[in-house]
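Checked the freezer inventory, then went back to the computational side. Two predictions to log before the end of the day. The first one is the construct we discussed on Monday; recording sequence and C-alpha cells without edits.
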Amino acid sequence: MKLAVAGVSYKTAPVEIREHLAVAPAQLAQELARLRAAPGVKEGLILSTCNRHEVTMLLEDSVDPARCVLDFLPNSEQLAPYLAVHEGREAVRHLFRVAASLDSMVVGEPQILGQLKQAYQSAKEVGTVGSLLDTVVTSAFAVAKRVRRETEIGANAVSVSFAAVELAREIFGSLRDSRILLIGAGKMSELAARNLHRQGARHIYVTNRTYERSVEVAKLFRGWILDFQTFKQSLPIADIIITSTAATHYLLTPPDLQRSLRARRNKPIFLIDIAVPRNIDPAVNQLDNVFLYDIDDLQHVVERNLAGRQSAAQKAERIVEEEVSRLEERLKVREVAPLIVALQGNLERIRAAEWERVRAKLGPLTPEQEEAIEGLTRSIVKKIAHGPIAELRRQVGVEESQPVMETIKRIFRL
C-alpha cells in the first residue's frame, strides 16, 4: 500500500480550472463514495477549497495515483497539465504543510486547518478513512497545533477576505464614503465585512440566499439587507462589490453591469470575486469603468504579507520536517508490529500449553510455587523472543528487510 496526494491548487492551476472541480458540502458524501469505488483505492478524503482541490488516498502499490485521480475527476484532459502528485514521504510532508498553512496563498491563515478537519470528518462519516489515513491526518492536525504554538506564523495573519479588502483600500484610499455590497454572507463574507468595518467603511449592504444569515452579518456592522431575489435592482448604489457564494453559475454578467453603469452615469465599479466557482462572469472586464479582480489577483497583496513572516515560516518548515521523520518511523514500526505480536502470541500459547501438560504430574502446588513456575516459564519465553524481536526492530527502515521477516516466520511457524 502507498499514500498519495493528487490534485490542483492555486500554485499549479488558475481559477478557471479550479472552479470546475469545486465540490459543494452537500455533494461531498457522494464524491467520497465514488472515490471509494475507484479501482485500487483503499482509503481516501477530498479537500476542496477556493484555493485547492486535492484527493488524499491509500492505494494498492500497482496503482498510478495520477491516472487514478484523472479518472476520478471531471475534465481530465484539461486537468492533466496542472496536476500535482505527491507520494510516500512527500505526501505526508504535503499534508503537514497544508494543515500548518505553509502551502496556503496566505501563509499563516487559520481557515485551512478547519477545512481539513471538516474534510476528515466527512470522510470518517462516509467510512473512507481507515487506520493508516487516520494516523496520518490526525498527525497533521498535531503538527499544525505545534506550529501555531512554537512559531509566530499566525501573528497578524491575513485571510483571502482581508486581502480583498486591502485591494479595495489600495484602489479607493479611504473606504469611509464608499458603498459596499457583499453578495453572500458566509464565513468569507463575514471576515471581509469585519475588515471593511475596521478600515472605516460605514455603508455596507448584505444579500444572501438565506435571509436569516443576511440579518446576522448585517447586525454586526449596522449594515443594510437587500433581498437576494431582487438585489440586482440595487447594484447601482454599490461602488465596491465583493462576491463569495457557493453558486455554481455566474450571479453577475455583462448585461447586469451595463445596466448598473447606465444608472451610475458610468461612475466606476470595482468587483472582487473571491468565490470558487467564480460568481462574476470574467467578460465584465471588457466593459469600460468596470474593474474585476478574482481570487488569483489577490496574490500580490498576499506576497507582501508573506515577506514579513519568512522567519516564522522557516521555523515552521523545520518543525514539519521533524514531524515527517517521526511519523515515518511510527509507520515503519507498524509494518513489523503485527509480526512481533504474532511471535509473542505463538510463544505464549506454547508456554501455556506445556505448563498445563506437566502441571498434573507435579501434584499439589502451593500458590507461591505456581507463581514461581509461571514467572520462570514466562522469563524463558521472553528471553527466547528477545533476539528475534530485536532483529525485527532493527529491520525497520531497511530496504531488504523482507527476507529476514520471512525467515523468522518460517522458524517460528507464524
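The second is the one RB wanted added to the comparison set:
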Amino acid sequence: MDYVFMMDSDSDLPFDLKEKYDIPVVYMPYSLDGKEYFDDLGQTINHKDYYDRMRAGALPVTSALNEENYLEYFDPILKEKDLLFVAFSSKLSSTIQAVYSAREKLLEKYPDRKFIVVDTLSISTPVVVLALKAHEKYRAGAPIEEVAAWLEENKLRAQAWFTVDDLKYLKRGGRISPMAAAMGSMLDIKPVITESREGTLVNVDKIRGRKKSITYLADKFFENEPDHSALVILLHADAPDDAAALKDMILTRDPSLNVRVDNVGPVIGAHCGPGTLAVTFMGRERTV
C-alpha cells in the first residue's frame, strides 16, 4: 500500500488483531502509584491485578500526548508513505489538537504527502469495530480518500452501551455529583451510558441492580440493529462472569453474530473503574 492505516491505544484494539492486520498504534500514557506506563494493548499488563489495585485504592492518572510525541510517531511514516490516522473522539480529550499540530508541521516538511485524520467521535472498541470494517477496504487496495470517506460516513454507526459497577469512578471524573454517587450506591443504581452523536458520553438511564443492567445492555444492542457483517466486542473491567452472561444473552437471541470478549484497557479503565461492562458494535446511526 502507498499509505499507512494507523490507530491509537485508546481504541482498546485487541493485540491479536493489531498483529493479525499489522496495524501501527500510538501508545497512550497513564500513571499508577507514581510510575508512568504506556497502554500497549495488554502485552505487559495483568488486567485483573490492575483493577484489584484500583479496588484497593490506587488512582490511575491518564495524560495526553503532546505534539512532539506525535511527531516521533508520524515522521518516520511520512518520510516513506501517506498516512490515515483513525483518532478517538475530540470531545473526550484535547489530544487530537496535538495530532493536528503535528500534521500541519509534517505536511510543511513533506508537501507531496497526504495525511488524513479521522475524528471517529468514539473511544474504546467502537473505534475498533468501525476501523476493522474500513481496514477491509484498505487491505483490498482502496485509496486513502475512499477509506477516509467511508469512515466519516459510517462513524456514527459505531455504538457503545455500557454500565459501571461502582459510581465512585464517575464521581471522581466529575460525571456525577458526590450526592448522586452516594444515593446511587445506596440504592444499587447502575447507570447506563452511551456515546452520543457529538462524541460525548451521555447517561441515558438508571437501572436498579446489576442483572437488570446487563439485560438492558442486551436489549439496547438488538434495538440498535447490529450489523451482522461486523465484529461485536464485549468489554469488561475484571468482570468476566458478567461478560459471559451478556454474551450468552446475545447469542441465545441470535447465534449467527460474531461476538468476542475483551478487557477494558488501563487508560479507559482509569475513568470507568473495575466492574465496567460494555457492548460495542456497528448498527444503525446513533440517535442520542
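For RB: Confidence is low (pLDDT under 50) at residues 175-187. The domain at 3-155 is CATH 3.40.50.10170 (Rossmann fold). Let me know if you want it refolded.
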